[in-house]
Amino acid sequence: MRLKLFSRFFLALAVIVAVNPTRAIGSRPADDETNQVLEWNQILIDTLIQSNAVNAASPRLSAIVHTAIFDAYNGIERRYTPIYVTAAAPRGASRRAAVVAAAYTTLYALFQSRRSDLDASYAASLAALSDDEDDTGGQSRERGIAWGVQVANAVLAWRATDGFSSTPPPFRGGTAIGQWRPTPPALASMGSQTLAFTQPFVLASATQFQPPAPRGLLTSTYTDDFNAVKNLGRASGSTRTDDQTALAPFWDGNASVHWNQAANQMARANDLSMSKTNRLLAVLNIAMADTMFTTWNGKRHYAAIDTEATWRPVTAITLADTDSNADTVADPDWRPLITTPAHPEYPAGHPSLNGAGATALLNCFDDAQTFTLTTRAAGVDLPSRSYTSISQARSDGNNARVWGGMHYPSTVAISNQLGETIANYVNQHAMQPLHGDR
Predict the structure, then answer these.
(1) Is the peptide bond before 185 cis (omega within 30 degrees of 0)?
(2) For residue range 19-56, what is the model confidence (pLDDT) as tens digits?
(3) Rounded CA gap, 432 and 273, in Å?
(4) How many Å apart are CA 401 and CA 229, to the nearest integer?
(5) Rounded CA gap, 218 and 222, in Å?
(6) N or C: which end of the chain has fewer CB within 10 A?
């Protein structure tokens, strides 16, 4: 019933805008060259920033939005296999209107605190649409709106039962040597635990690409990991450069914001068609979402095993005299540059997302690309970062987890590869061309 009411509300708003375009805040002249997929991807980015969306939950939210956008546009174009909605769009429906309606409907449902801003953006987008995709006296746009709303509601209903809303009991790991346990200062239970039990968008399950067990405490890899983060990641007296110290908090920002910003700018710079942009952003965000579910499932799985090394550096370094490794020396006063997040160390969230995001882009563009990223931390915008290659951004983002004192180098490498594997799988198995041309 609620979804039906949403549908009627969105259609009513569309009619109001059509009758009275002056209602649209910031409306602009009609421009059929506008790429509505990129327009609403930017609105998604802005919404994530303005709502202070947490990094762990953002990939799922972004994937819901871009699944709806993809299936709405593709349901009319019929160029690729659908992600979820297989029904045929009404004949003569406007693809542009469908994109706007699908994006707005999902964002409106997911970001309740941003509804007034989304209303204004929706009104402006509809007011800017001309109806010359066919000669139906305005019916093309209205059909597109109705179709976009229908697709979005179907996607929202699908993901409402994906397990994300489950309430598992709090998880606090254990006190075995090497096992994850809550970290200072909050000493909180595992955060965003429901991600570990959320059904992926494309993967068969969150264990399809489960990473291997972490390195043991007595291995040379662990010794190298320990000493690297002990020296590089400490809050004071570290061996970091000034730039590395600045990069750590920058790349502690929202990975979905970063990689969508990069994708949006690259699509514009390379004059990517709306159809190809639609697929790129769907692959990007679904790959990141399925990577996050896989990563969180791995965190929860391995941290429950008391013989696996999943403790964070802040725990490992202060308790190193208990690990039976003669080459690791305890420092009870050691603290990380960045406050340790409340979840197990292995595998790593940001590096897995960096691997997925960068790979999705590298499957579409050459590595040499120019783009600028931003981060907002505690309500403050940090100095932006400009890059001339995808690989350099990926490298900075991954190394920042060691510079921040939150992860070990081997965890970063494995997690980055995990994201790459999942992004390649999504690209090769979902949204496949129906006519032989991707």
Answers:
(1) yes
(2) 332 223 233 333 447 899 999 999 999 999 999 999 99
(3) 17
(4) 9
(5) 7
(6) N
Residue 373: helix, strand or coil by DSSP? Answer: strand
Determine which helix (DSSP H) or strand (DSSP E) holds 372, and give its type and residue range. strand 371-373
Contacts of 343 (CB under 8 A, 6+ apart): 56, 180, 190, 191, 192, 193, 296, 299, 349
How many CA atoms lie less than 13 Å away from 274 in the CB half-sphere?
21
Distance CA 134, CA 91 (A): 11
Do 259 and 357 meet the contact criterion of CB atoms below 8 Å apart?
A: yes
DSSP state of 34: S
pLDDT single digits (tens) 372-403: 999 999 889 999 999 999 999 999 999 999 99
Residue type, 354: N
Instruction: Collapse the DSSP code of 380 into the 3-class scheme (helix H, G, I; strand E, B; otherwise coil) and give the result.
Output: strand
Residue 401: HSE in the Cβ half-sphere, 13 Å Cα cutoff: 28
Q: Any bridge partners for residue 8, and if so which?
A: none
Q: Which contacts of 387-391 are long-range, i.e. CB under 8 A and separated by 24 or more positions?
A: 387/262, 390/262, 390/358, 390/361, 390/362, 390/365, 391/358, 391/362, 391/367
Q: What is the pTM of this model?
A: 0.92
Give which of 257, 284, 195 is closest to 51, Cα–Cα. 257
The candidate with the shortest Cα–Cα distance to 59, out of 287, 278, 252, 377, is 287
Residue 2 has pLDDT above 70, yes or no: no
What is the C-alpha to C-alpha distance for residues 267 and 90, in angstroms, rounded to an integer?
A: 29
How far apart, in whole angstroms, are the C-alpha atoms of residue 274 and residue 166?
Answer: 36
Q: Distance between CA 276 and CA 197 in Å, rounded?
A: 32
pLDDT in tens, 85-128: 999 999 999 999 999 999 999 999 999 999 999 999 999 999 99
Cβ(400)–Cβ(250) under 8 Å?
yes
For the record, the structure tokens of 404 come out as: 């921040």
d(CA 78, CA 317) in angstroms, rounded, equals 55
157: amino acid identity, one letter? A
DSSP 268: H
Confidence of residue 238 (pLDDT cuts 50, 70, 90): very high
pLDDT digits over 121-171, tens only?
Answer: 999 999 999 754 444 556 899 999 999 999 999 999 999 999 999 999 999
